[in-house]
């Protein structure tokens, strides 16, 4: 009989929003498309708020409320960057519902976003979801084209 006491669960990052899944290489911003911040995927949101894609701890909330960093329970660090050039909105269009240091669970609401305002006042409402410490591990990105918040696994880690 083999015991799996020490076998770690594989990381599963679920979609934080509903929308179209886009390869990171197609995000119209070189910081993301050239993977300067790490491996990942992007979602063009169709509706709704932004929810936690993993169980973990909030480690960063941008002062302009457009980005949230989460450390998953396995140590993987995930950045949700809501929109492109949204730092210039100075927090307008965003209401963050968590604080740095909060323990969060998959599916917990972390941000309300005014998609109409963001669409009119920023370059894009696309959400890059980046593993900022991806050099340490290997990840498998989904081949799905559409994301269902809380259900579609978009990134799997080893």
Automatic annotation (TrEMBL):
Single GO MF annotation: kinase activity
Location of this chain's protein in the cell: Cytoplasm
SUPFAM superfamilies to which the protein is assigned, alphabetical: Duplicated hybrid motif
GO BP annotation list: phosphoenolpyruvate-dependent sugar phosphotransferase system
Cytoplasm found in the keyword field: no
GO CC annotations on file: cytoplasm
Sequence ranges assigned to domain PTS EIIA type-1 in this UniProt record: 29-133
Family annotation (InterPro entries): Dup_hybrid_motif, PTS_EIIA_1_perm, PTS_EIIA_component
Keyword Repeat: no
Sorted UniProt keywords: Kinase, Phosphotransferase system, Sugar transport, Transferase, Transport
Name the UniProt record assigns to this protein: PTS system glucose-specific IIA component
UniProt source species: Neobacillus niacini
């Amino acid at each position: 009989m083999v015991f799996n006491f020490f076998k770690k669960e594989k990381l599963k990052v679920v979609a934080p929003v509903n929308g179209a899944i886009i390869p990171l290489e197609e995000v119209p911003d070189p910081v993301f498309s050239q993977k300067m911040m790490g491996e990942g995927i992007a979602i063009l949101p169709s509706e709704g708020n932004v929810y936690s894609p993993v169980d973990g701890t909030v480690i960063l909330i941008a002062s302009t409320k457009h980005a949230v960093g989460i450390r998953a329970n396995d140590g993987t660090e995930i950045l949700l960057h809501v929109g492109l050039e949204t730092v210039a909105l100075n927090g307008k269009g965003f209401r963050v519902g968590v604080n740095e240091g909060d323990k969060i669970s998959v599916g917990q609401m972390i941000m309300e976003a005014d998609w109409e305002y963001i669409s009119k006042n920023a370059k894009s409402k696309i959400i890059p979801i980046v593993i900022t410490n991806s050099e340490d591990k290997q990840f498998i990105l989904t081949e799905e084209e559409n994301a269902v918040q809380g259900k579609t696994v978009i990134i799997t880690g080893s």
